[in-house]
Amino acid sequence: MVRRCNNARVRIYVDAIFNHMGGTGADMRGTGGSTANSVIRSYPAVPYDILDFHVPCPIFDYQNKDNVRNCDLVGAPDLNQALEDVREKIVDYLSRLIALGVAGFRIDSAKHIWPNDLKVIFGRLPNLMTDHGFPPDAKPFIYQEVIDFGGEAISKYEYIELGAVTEFRYSFNISGVFRGLARLDTLQNWGEPWGFLPSDLALVFVENHDNERNHGAGGAQILTYKDGKRYIMAVTFGLAHPYGISRIMSSFFFTDTEAGPPMDANEAIISPSINPDGSCGNGWVCQHRWRQIYNMVKFKNVAGTAPLLNWWSNGNNQIAFARSGKGFVAFNNEGSDMDVILETSLPAGTYCDVISGSVSGTTCSGKTVIVQTDGTANIVIGNAEEDGVLAIHIEAKL
Hints:
This protein is globular. By secondary structure, it is of the alpha/beta class. The chain has helices spanning 2-7, 35-38, 65-70, 84-99, 115-123, 168-178, 228-240, 291-303; strands at 13-16, 104-107, 141-144, 164-166, 202-204, 245-246, 308-313, 318-323, 327-332, 338-343, 349-352, 359-360, 363-364, 368-371, 376-381, 389-393. Helices cover 20% and strands 17% of the residues.
């Protein structure tokens, strides 16, 4: 399956968990009391035994690096990555995945692993496989889960020399702005001035699997698929703006935040059905199949490294900006219509708004925008419109 995906130019990134071992399972035997103190730390399939783990202790003080990195996360036995035997097993695990053709890794709970231990492990990994279409000497792309809102002993900046790092402040702040807790025009200096990581090292997202369920890291402020218009606007902004390495969520419907994916009576996962418009059914959300989102992925690819210019705002909740000569996007989170003449930086012509529709040959299923010879266009977004955003780019020219 990995080879099939690579042949289709779809890269696979593995969610790698090696900060700890599972707190439950066939190899975990308890005698009562707290999990950290009662579990026999034996995993013969790896194998790991009790000597491969830190001394059992709960995490209770996030002002203490030793406590956070050497103790048990939610009761799960904490591996000691400073031990050569543990390091070699982790390197072997990741190397086997690279041999299968994966492109990189998300490092779960990286905040709970000492950066120097990760540096040693990452430094021993082989190059990506050329027979899976990777160029010679290519290294795996690594991004590390580090939740850092400030005020704790461990900082996200401790990990940036090792690879990209999840920027949870981005998720919290973009959700807050598009929820109306701050004006859209405050986004003019979006990026590092907000306390974010450098753009080329920041893995950014509107929501992830934890915070969309109100599991810490932002709480109820986080926008999700349930928020409709404002969610689409936030995801669109993230894909239109040049800051960060973008990740989009693709999930399933839930009311119980502890529920798993759609399953049948035998607890076998139900495959999504595909609706006539390309979206998913059978309990799946599939945001990556939403027209507004997949068209904005194309926008992001078209814009590439083009700088942001022609920032405009009405001083409140209507904003717009261009990606120099490549694309243009506008947002209306106001309680009234938006109807203004703005600089787009694009060549003259008629363009398809890839939010309200898609390009098919020389036609557009949504709104069109006429760019004049001076690069300006009349941008109209009605307050009652479905999405509150408009986007055009050079490959959407009709």
